[in-house]
Amino acid sequence: MTRIPVTVMRGGTSKGVFINHEEMPVNKSDWEPFLLDIMGSPDQRQIDGLGGANSLTSKIAIIKKSDLEKADVDYTFAQVSISESLVDFKGNCGNISSAVGPYAIEQGLVQAVEPVTKVRIYNTNTKKVIVAEVEVENGKVKTEGSCMIPGVPGTGSPIYLSFENGEGAVTGKLLPTGNAIDLLQTSIGTIKASIVDVGNPLVFVKAEDIGLKGA
User: Fold this and answer.
1) Are residues 87 and 117 in the same domain?
2) 8 A C-beta contact, residue 161 and residue 94
């Protein structure tokens, strides 16, 4: 059995395992089985691992000090499947991104500056830079505060993220299909949709077109 130090952190409405890049296997082909083992996948309950039996709690962030002038740290996001032997490195997660700044400061990868420390994060998945603004108090990340977000009980210190040139993060295009509006053939008929890639690819539809109110 090999022991490695990890940090479990919440970011937004997600929770993930944060690992220093130095602790990762040297051979990248070993990353997938290594991360599956950490999370206890594949297993719907993830009993033998750190996963929380939900896609929102089966996420991993791999962090290291960046060699790039435009960034302080490099961050690789991994979405670990619960039911399959699969780790997805294609996209990023905004929720986990919000915890990268605090992790970098607490691990000494970025110097703490009061009252707000800006951490420049290079996301290796999307090749984009994210700037995180993290509140700092007495040389440490401030965790308590009055900020509230839907889906998470309690309050905490706010973290602000700025995604620089976020368009085309995964597909290389703001509008992957080349159209502002596409007609999608679905089980309930034809639906108008906008497929947009900013940060991650998203499909926008009118709530009323799929029988919802948007609330």
Assistant:
1) yes
2) yes
Tracing tokens 């040139």 back to the chain, one arrives at 165
- Token pair belonging to 45: 């309950």
* In a shared domain, residues 150 and 197: no
* pLDDT higher than 90, residue 214: no
Please indicate, yes or no, whether residues 14 and 41 belong to a single structural domain of this protein. yes
DSSP 82-110: SSSS-EE-SS--HHHHHHHHHHHHHTTSS
Taking the C-alpha atoms of residue 147 and residue 125, their distance in angstroms, rounded to an integer, is 29
What pLDDT sits at residue 1? Answer: 78
pTM value is 0.89
pLDDT digits (tens, 9 = 90+) for 165-211: 989 988 999 999 999 999 999 999 999 999 999 988 999 999 999 99
Indicate if 160 and 178 belong to the same structural domain. Answer: no
Q: Indicate if 28 and 62 belong to the same structural domain.
A: yes
User: What residues make up the domain containing 17?
Assistant: 7-164
- Tell me if 183 sits within 8 A of 189, measured CB to CB: no
Question: Quick one: which of 135, 128, 121 has its CA closest to 62?
Answer: 121
Instruction: Let me know whether 124 and 187 are in one domain.
Output: no
Share of the chain above pLDDT 90, in %: 93
Q: Phi and psi (nearest 5°) for 203?
A: -115, 120
Residue 2 lies in a domain: no
